[in-house]
Structures are given as structure tokens and as C-alpha cells.
Amino acid sequence: MSTAGSGAGWEQARRVLCVRLDNMGDVLMTTPALQALADSLPGRELTLLTSRPCAALAPHLPMVADVMTWDAPWVRHDPQPGTREVSDGIAACAARLAARSFDAAVIFTVYSQSPLPAAILCCMAGIPLRLAHCRENPYALLSDWVRDTEPNLDTHRPPRHEAQRQLDLVAQVGAATRDPRLRFRLAHADRDSVAALLRQLGARRHVVVHPGATAPSRRWPPERFAAVARQLADESGALVLVTGSAGEAGIVAQVCALAGRAGVVPLAGRLSLGEMGALLASADLLVSNNSGPVHLAAALGTPVADLYALTNPQHTPWMVPHRVLFHDVPCRYCYKSACPQGHHRCLREVTVEQVLDAARALLAGEACETAMPWHPPAAAAAPSVPAVPAAPGLASDTPPFAEETAHVHTWH
């Protein structure tokens, strides 16, 4: 990794825009870098520009003075805006930023994203210092360019964790923190609300199970979550609280019904973000698909059994006891919201007993951590997979799915 730009001027940059336009989990994994920026200059004021769904994080980020929201047109939204709406929206956002007279901007991206649209936005807003990772030479769009060389298939090492990637980025302009853990500030009112709920439920100990995820590729089957919830309720005597958004009420109800235990309780749509944080902070364990609650639990120090679809390698729980559960497949790291192969083996072949073993170990206080698989240096032949019989109506020589290795890309 090389850097263009000397970092000059950052020691005087007091009003800093931090751009993180994707999901809540991504913002949470950026909090150590945000803290580093705040710690490195007394009186520095950080403003976070993020997506509208992340606005709920505003009161929970102690290092951020203000949160601005905008649904950037280069990030997936439904429905997609038209051309005029896009151009007007970019101009309007640039004007909002220009009115704030920022001294500098840090653009945070995963390695499969380009920072250049956000860099253009910051140039339009007249922000003089602009820092980001970038794969191609950005020339004048970035004042401080950190060349992005990840992922690198010529090594045995997977890409850095997302939190470390962003810490390394801000280190290029002299920002560092003594505490690199994720951050999430709890409010007393949220703690009190959750304490009252737990008293009402008669809970002394509780485990949280979160069966939902925004992307279908990251969802373990609900009937298996139900089996895990039932067994944990029977073995530990703890209350098992099944969480989800209001839109996930169906899957939460399904898990609880299949579990068939009074001690497995649905909480879909009943908790604010702050209350969800307070619930996780007081829990013995979270069992979840790899989604926002995993990173929320990590920020609060709660152990995590993480059902991890191999869509990407760098979003595991950060600096908290955890087990990452997956089945390795040749098509790993597809970066897709839905399984391109249709079989979903990286999650479907994780068994209930494997998850229970992980949960038992974490509840017993065992130190647990899982290394993510990565391509060998020769990055050549992937393991062979048994042939799948042709579906009815297909010729016998027509595969029902694409070759598993056909979409294994270094980045998307």
C-alpha cells in the first residue's frame, strides 16, 4: 500500500466530514477510526454523512457532533432514482456540505467500493482535504490517496478486518486511538426500559437470537434457529429472546412457534435501536446471522455466535469473544445479496449442533476466535464439487447452476 499526499494540513483540520454511506454495521465498524480522528486533535468536530437508515445511530456515537443523512445514488436503493433526481440530489447535497465549511473529509469504503463519487461530491462542496482508499489513481479528486491493494490473492492472508482498514486509513493523516474497540453509547432511558421488560418477562439470564438479515444470502434457515433456541432454553434455563425489526415479525414468529417453548419469546418490532443495544449489553450471548446486531454486540462486549455467509471475509465480530460459523465452498466471497449458485451451501451446511457447540463454549467463557478461509497463493484450481443431477426438463449435460468457481472475483 502506498500513499500519495503528505497529510499536510490535517493537524489544523478542526471541522471534519466523515462519509460512510452504506449500512449500520459498516458505520459501527468505522467507529474506532472516528474515535481516532476525534482523539487526535482537541476540539475537533466530526460530522457523519450517512444513509437515512443510519440516522438512528446519531445519539449513540459519542465522538460525532452531528449526523447528516443522504441516500447517495451510487449506493443501492429501492426504487432507483431517475437521472434528473440524481443530478438535483447531488447538487443539493453538495450545497448542504458547502454551507458547513468543512476543513477536511474522510471517505470510508470497503475495498469493493469506489470512493470517487463521494470525492467528486466533496470537491463540489469545496472541501480542501480529502482522504480515501482508492484502487486507481484519483489525481486531483483526493488530496490524500491511500492506494487500495486488497484483496490480494497472492498471499495466504485475507483482507484486513473492516475496522482495521479504517484505522489504517486515518493513521495516514496522524489519527490514532488507544482503544480500537467499536463504540455504541447507551442511554439510561434505554437501560431502564429494557430492565423493566426483563422484569416483566421474569428473566434472570437471557440469550438473544436474531434470525433476520437484509440480504437473503446471509440468512440461516429459521427452523434451525428454532432448534438452537429450544435447546438453549432447555439446557441453560435462560430466557431466549428472538429479535428483529417490525418487517421481520414473520420470521421471528416462525422461529418461536417452531421452538415450542414458553421461554423462547418474540420481540420483533418492540425495541428501538437504543433498547436493542441495552438488551444485548445485558445478554450472555448473541446467536445471529452476520448483520447489524453482530457489530452492535461487539461494540457492547457481548459474545457472538455468528452465522457467517461467505459473501465477504472482512466483517467478522471485532475484539469480542466469538465463533464464526460457515461451511467453506469454492464460490466463497461472491459479494452477492442472493446466492448466485442457488444452493446457499456456505450457510445451509452449518449444522444445529455446530452452532450449539459454539454457544456452549462462549457461555462457558472459553476464548474463541475463527480464522477466515482464503485462497492459496497459487489461486488456481478450486476443490471439485460433486455433480448435481439435472433438474426435470433439462438436458443431462446442462448444469442446473453455474460453475461454482465462475464468479469468484478478487473484487466487485
From TrEMBL:
<keyword id="KW-0328">Glycosyltransferase</keyword>
<dbReference type="GO" id="GO:0009244">
    <property type="term" value="P:lipopolysaccharide core region biosynthetic process"/>
</dbReference>
<feature type="region of interest" description="Disordered">
    <location>
        <begin position="393"/>
        <end position="412"/>
    </location>
</feature>
<dbReference type="GO" id="GO:0005829">
    <property type="term" value="C:cytosol"/>
</dbReference>
<dbReference type="GO" id="GO:0008713">
    <property type="term" value="F:ADP-heptose-lipopolysaccharide heptosyltransferase activity"/>
</dbReference>
<dbReference type="Pfam" id="PF01075">
    <property type="entry name" value="Glyco_transf_9"/>
</dbReference>
<comment type="similarity">
    <text>Belongs to the glycosyltransferase 9 family.</text>
</comment>
<keyword id="KW-0808">Transferase</keyword>
<dbReference type="InterPro" id="IPR051199">
    <property type="entry name" value="LPS_LOS_Heptosyltrfase"/>
</dbReference>
<protein>
    <recommendedName>
        <fullName>lipopolysaccharide heptosyltransferase II</fullName>
        <ecNumber>2.4.99.24</ecNumber>
    </recommendedName>
</protein>
<dbReference type="InterPro" id="IPR011910">
    <property type="entry name" value="RfaF"/>
</dbReference>
<dbReference type="InterPro" id="IPR002201">
    <property type="entry name" value="Glyco_trans_9"/>
</dbReference>
